[in-house]
Design a protein that fits this description.
Elements (H helix, E strand, L loop, with lengths): L1 H18 L20 E2 L7 E6 L4 H9 L6 E5 H5 L2 H9 L4 E4 L5 H4 L3 H13 L5 E3 L7 H9 L3 E3 L3 E2 L12 E6 L7 H10 L5 H6 L11
Parallel strand pairs: 1-6, 2-3, 2-8, 3-4, 4-5, 5-6, 7-8
Amino acid sequence: MKTKALLVGLLIVLGLFLFNVPKNLSSLLPVFQLTEKPTVISKGSYGNTITVDLTFGKDDIEKFVNDLQAPYPHFFISIEWIERSEDIIKVMKEKNIPISLLGTSGATYIENPTLFEKEVERFEQAIGERPLWFRTMDYEFPIELQKKAWEQEINLLSSSKYWSNKVPALEKGDILTIPLHQEERIDIQQLVKFVKSKEIITIEQNIFGLKVKTKTYPE
């Protein structure tokens, strides 16, 4: 009799658990940790994401940022540019333009093991929060760097397409990089037209198909 009562009790508990499991329960990880182990993401599945690597420029960048309308490209910016461009960064934060950290070459993080942590600290001081995403200038991510980023709960992003001499054709899931450096630079007017002509989504939407809603305060 006791055994029967115990089985009934277990069945009730199991039933309560099954019927109360959240419908949205999945293998998705928190937004600050999008992978289950150190890795580099280079492509999504649900649309096109535009990222901008920024290390140089002022007046043209300021106008570009002021004129930008959502949905925005995702900016990867060197810490040096961030620290010398406070006014533009302020506008980007007010408009909720996504900003992440652009580092130096991958090999530098082997030569200088503490560089990554120092850049992250400087980013947090300048932006007010830690970067969710990070990429290197040459898209090389040594395993040591991958481990450090994982420990810091920062995701690593490469890209599947790179705009060099001409605009690449985009396929579903592509993450495009647009360079804005002193030595390699896409014409801003051409960039403006391109951004306006494309239906772009965030990195997170491209990876998981998330529908992101934003709200502006005050109403």
